[in-house]
Amino acid sequence: MCEVAAHVFADADEEYASIGAVKRRLEEWKARYGELFEYGMSAAADGGGAMSDDDPDSELVPQLVRKLVLPLALHWIERCWDARSVPQTRAVAALAAELLVYVPAEEARMVELLGGLRGALEAAAAAAALPAWPPAVLAASPTAARVAFHRFRSALRLLHCVTAFEGLLARGLLVGLALGRLVAGSMMPYLRGAAAGAGLGGGEGMGFAVSTAEAVAAALHPDWFAGGAAPAEAAVFVEHVASLARGLEQQARQPDAGGARAGLARRLAAVLARLGDGERGARLAAAYGIRGQ
Fold first, then answer.
1. What per-residue confidence (pLDDT) applies to 44?
2. What's the confidence (pLDDT) of residue 21?
3. Strand partners, 166
4. Were both Cys, which of 111, 195, 250, 281 would link to 273 (CB 3.0–4.6 Å)?
5. What confidence score (pLDDT) does residue 201 get?
6. pLDDT at 202
């Protein structure tokens, strides 16, 4: 090992020809990195306040972002971003939020970027239609059932993608895409089919109906339902969840082997609370003797 170690630095330049030399150089780089990382903040840290507006370096980072980062972001969003991919979309949303720290939203290139985001989401939502097959078709054809479920999952992922831009794009646009075009316009036939398949029992059929409603509610941004006021576009979906709740309430006095229906009631009550209808959720929970919901 000693012989090998003796030859490690044999062909290295003199300033890197020993462990000590390499260590010194790394420490120098570390110090420089620290200076760059804290650039523009040293005055504030020393009690001297932030960098003044007339300091020529105050626009250094914003200009670098405008000239280097923003063009790359525009290219990547236009050419590479799949608006149906949740990981990609969350990365794009985070990137857009960072860009807005340095570049005002009204600047032409940022207007272009935000417009590109909006256009991509609108195009993806327009292409997310689910086949409106009745429950009888899905029950008779396993292939049709698999196709419909796959399309539902795709629409659900897109729903998560749309809500990722809350606070970046206009809420009215996002609510319209998510609740108007995707949920009410594309997903409701599938959700209603799941409810129809639930029948009167509290078993697998009702469990699937609750799970689909639960998944949609989880994809919606909670701020849209803050204060108990649901957007008008949510009315169809909220009524769908309420109809499931009424069905479970009507069965509350029937035998519930293993507490299956009570478990569904607890989950559905949580969905109602998330959608701003806590009163109905509490009533459903009370019907099954559920406390602390």
1. 47
2. 77
3. 169
4. 281
5. 41
6. 44
Residues of the chain with pLDDT under 70: 1-17, 32-58, 198-204, 292-293
pLDDT of residue 200: 37
Q: Tell me: do 140 and 38 sit in the same domain.
A: no
* Residue 25 structure tokens: 């150089």
Q: Can you say whether residue 23 is alpha, beta or left, with left for phi > 0 and alpha for psi between -120 and 50 degrees?
A: alpha
268 assigned to some structural domain: yes
- One DSSP character per residue, the chain reads -HHHHHHHTTTS-GGGSSHHHHHHHHHHHHHHHHHHHTTTTHHHHTTS-SPPTT-GGGGHHHHHIIIIIHHHHHHHHHHT--TT-HHHHHHHHHHHHHHHHHS-TTSHHHHHHHHHHHHHHHHHHHT-PPP---HHHHHH-HHHHHHHHHHHHHHHHHHHHHHTTBTTB-HHHHHIIIIIIIIIIIIHHHHHHHHHHHTT-SSHHHHHHHHHHHHHHHHS-GGGGGGG---GGGHHHHHHHHHHHHHHHHTTTS--GGGHHHHHHHHHHHHHHHTT-HHHHHHHHHHTT----
pLDDT for position 292: 62
Q: For residue range 186-211, what is the model confidence (pLDDT) as tens digits?
A: 999 999 988 887 553 445 688 999 99
Q: Report angle CA 61, 63, 66 to the nearest 5 degrees.
A: 110
Q: Check residue 50 and give its pLDDT.
A: 56
Q: Domain limits at 185?
A: 128-287
Instruction: Give me 91's structure tokens.
Output: 């990365």
Q: Is residue 72 part of a domain?
A: no
Q: Specify if 103 maps to a domain.
A: no
Domain count, the chain: 2
